[in-house]
Design brief:
Helix content: 40-55%
Largest sheet: 8 strands, parallel
CATH superfamily of the largest domain: Divalent-metal-dependent TIM barrel enzymes
CATH topology of the largest domain: TIM Barrel
Amino acid sequence: MRIGYACLTVGVPGTGFRTCTARNATPDVLSELIGSNLRSLDNILDYNIKNGIELFRISSDIIPFGSHPVNTLRWWDDFGEELRSIGNKAIYNGIRLSMHPGQYTVLNSPDEDVVKRAGEDLMYHSRFLDAVGAGPECKIVLHIGGVYGDKREAIERFVRNHRRLNNSIRRRLVIENDDRHYTISDVLSVGGREGIPVVFDNLHHRVNCDDSRTEGEWIASCGRTWSVDDGPQKLHYSQQDPGKRPGSHSATLNADEFVRFCDILPNRNVDIMAEVKDKNLSAVKCINAVSPPDIQKLERERARYKYLVLEHSPKGYHGIRELLKDKSSYPVLEFYRLIDDALSSPVTHGNAVNAAQHVWGHLKNACPGSEAEIERRIADSVLSAKRFLWKLTEKTQERYLLDSLYFAEVYS
């Protein structure tokens, strides 16, 4: 089982993506942005390798205006060396890549101009995966689309337009159920008929449900649409945000609930894409929850969360420290419960000052002349103090703090 996340990386410097407006999208600007974005993607892969994450969805925004006429660059040639290097790194480290075009890429629209643009967008995604040297197991995920007043005809239109796509797209394209129009039963009927692998999305299924079978049975049916060349079956996994409309992704994943989902899987030879607001943080959480016991993994996680937790809840901070004193155990689920509970507490001014002073304790010996400045900044604004502490961390290259999630809001 591989567990991954989509597009963006939380709490990791140097991994942001940049874009511009169409009006400013000159060749020089686009070239500079593409170079910057590819460096960010390379940094994301380094983070994923370090953290044992072997599944990653690349943002469609990696090439700004990738399928838009305003981008006239032959970026696949201009950045060929960088793209091949990224692909080689992913392949060497066993990282399966994918992409997922946005909501405006609709293959079954009755508007031929929309279908034409959808084809162009799919070609862009296919070209990017080809440019990095990704194999056919690296997929492009797409929804069937809208209903447009006649579901049966909308499905037939999807089938006709799918057949018009060139083979480089068709070999990568997979389809998933959605939370409004097309149930997993609908998508399986299309996938089975056309030989298209089907991705099961658990939250979409719960919102737009065909309950004639259990989740495990639907997952097994989807698994039979994946051939050896397609790679392991892919699933999308998310949890409902309790405060938002049905189908909205939660801020973080509950590890207990994820483990219960894994228990219903027909087999563990699957790749699970976590769709969640905190991205890589939940991916690591889920990997640790189902991996063989290794207390050092939790110690590393504690180090990353330590001062962020302290800022939210000193009680949670001390509870986690007590929990991990027994090095012979692996209390992974209780560990993440404590973290989730702590981070659900609002930050008070007193707790924020306390956390900033603890972080300063790691830096003061290396930056003795900064003591008056940090005191002034804490008195003025804790966020200002945090930004100053981050600058000192970058200056000193204090590894313990460079990896800390305490600074995520400063450089995100």
